[in-house]
Design goal:
This protein has 10 helices and 11 strands. It is an alpha+beta fold. Strand 4 and strand 5 form a beta hairpin. The protein starts with 6 loop residues before the first helix and ends with a helix. The structure holds ligand MTE and molybdenum atom (MO). The site of ligand MTE has 18 residues, from loops.
Amino acid sequence: MRFEPRPRAVDWTILAALALALATGVVSLATGSVRDGWVFFLHGAGGLTLTVLLFWKLRRVRPRISAGVRSGSWRVLLSVYLAVVALAALLTGVAWVLGANLDLGGWTLLNLHIGLGLVVVPPLVWHVLMRARRPTSEDWEGRRTMLQYAGLALAGALAWRAQQAVVAALDTAGADRRFTGSKPEGGTGNRYPATSWVLDDPDPVDTESWRLHVAGSVERPFRADYAALTGDGGTVAPTVDRALLDCTSGWYVERDWRGVRVGDLLDAAGTSDDARWVTFHSVTGYRFGFPIEQARELLLATHVDGERLSHGHGYPLRVVAPDRRGFQWVKWVTAVEVRESRDWGQWVAIFVSGID
Ligand SMILES: Nc1nc2c(c(=O)[nH]1)N[C@H]1C(S)=C(S)[C@@H](COP(=O)(O)O)O[C@H]1N2
Ligand SMILES: [Mo]
């Protein structure tokens, strides 16, 4: 039996695998919960399967490519560009898993992988629009095709498993990765990278004038000063949560965060019956929201491992959101807004905040 499916089947499977890799890649950025571990598995196994498919395809079209490049056909050149970007995305993904990293001025090899993944999209769309041929039933027919695809899926899963084993055996920097791909940053307290993900870079917050506003769909909106939140003023009792901050740049730290439980703040304000979401606003305009039941469990931290938060890590107050990716841990919080509906604008705000 020939292991390689028919050309058109290979092409469409590449498209499906690319779509899967892109979709799981995007989704993986927004989740940090172990329950969503399968998303990361599909991303890894799908990427490895894609490598095999691309190998078949490139071997097949090689003569056409050389002819096209020699005659300077821009269509072929664009296709070559697509192949190069896609292969670079695969390569950087695998290299990251194997423990490699790069210092790209604050960006990591994982960021580069994400960037390459996004750069694949325009030439891919163009390639599909220009060249896609509808597959005929012959391309798929029969038990053979089913077996080929079962084999492919199995090979992807096994390659993924083997890769995990190799990394563990080599004990490279890749070995301590979480299922999200992130690697540990050591240290204690404030000693770990301070990350602002696009442009946020506020002046240090002056807690003489700073207040936390609790408002929106509540019965008794109020403001609290810094002392009230650290326990000195006694509005709400501080508590400590051990929680893991996992940034999509590919690192994580685990710390003891001390602060006030959001549920206590909401109880003090008395939420209305229609309250469904809670958005945390930063002094920079950055903001992120959570369903109210989840928001109640979160901590607004003033301290990390017993140290007052440094400016870079969000002094005076930051969100601590276990199982959520770092970008949702809003820093320099100044308002807790109780809402009746979801805040879609946050997806714009996290990209454009800090632009003045
Ligand atoms: N206001 C604001 N909060 C923010 C960010 C930001 O850019 N602005 N970056 C987020 C991202 S991407 C991460 S990973 C964490 C990083 O927290 P750290 O600076 O303590 O490492 O903060 C989050 N909170
Ligand atoms: Mo991040």
